[in-house]
Amino acid sequence: MNTKFTFSAGVWNLNTGSDPFGPAVRPDKEFAEKCRTFKRLGFDFVQLHDDDAVPMDVPPNLVEFYTKKLKTICEDNGVGVEFIAPRLWEDPEFADGSFTSGKARISGNPKMPSAPSTSFSNTVTSSLKPTQERAYSLK
Fold this sequence. Notes:
Layout: E1 8-10, H1 31-40, E2 45-49, H2 50-53, H3 63-76, E3 80-85, H4 104-107, H5 115-124, H6 132-135
Parallel strand pairs: 1-2, 2-3
Helix pairs in contact: 3-5
């Protein structure tokens, strides 16, 4: 029986606390500081959204640079990346989901919106084994 457990947490758990109902209640933290905090608390992996991994305004020719930088920060702080998920719900085109959309253009091509996340994930999670099967079901 496996008695060693591995835990992960989303970087959004250490955000400023602001939401549609109120302003920030604590200062923002750099990604490296979040990684150190998670490791100190016993987490071995972090969970990210695509724009947590690479800012959305980064030009395509710099995406690989940013993902390698992210991977280095994680490795330097002793954590891996469990998964990188796309923020589909923030795009009005995907208000009904990707697979469940009534729009043939979207439901017929569910990988389309997750392509950047999959690309980021392939760069930073290459050494991840424990959760790789569920890390990206849209691959």
